[in-house]
Specification:
A hairpin with a 3-residue loop joins strand 1 (about 65) and strand 2 (about 70-75). The chain is mainly alpha-helical. The chain is about 45% helix and about 10% strand. The two termini are about 25 Å apart. The longest helix is centred in the N-terminal third of the chain and has 14 residues, at about 10-25. Helix 2 (about 35-45) packs across helix 3.
């Protein structure tokens, strides 16, 4: 589970930053299946919409790739 920094940014942005950090550090390797949006929201005590927004932004940035019916997976990115 990501640790959300309390830095005054919107929660989705905090989650996105945590995902970026975990992917860069190798804690979330390429191909890793991310938790479902509902499961992650429940675990972090935030809304599913917030997780959806963070996942969408992570996908736009090429960090993850969503596959309908399969889940969301960490992309293989060159750093």
């Amino acid at each position: 589970m990501p640790s959300l920094p309390d830095n005054g940014e919107p929660i989705y942005s905090q989650l996105l930053s945590a995902l970026e950090s975990d992917i860069s550090a190798g804690r979330l390797p390429a191909g890793f299946r991310m938790p479902t949006q509902r499961d992650l929201a429940r675990a972090l005590g935030i809304s599913a919409g917030t997780v959806t927004k963070a996942y969408a932004e992570a996908e736009r940035l090429g960090l993850v790739q969503g596959q309908v019916g399969r889940g969301t997976f960490v992309s293989g990115r060159e750093t």
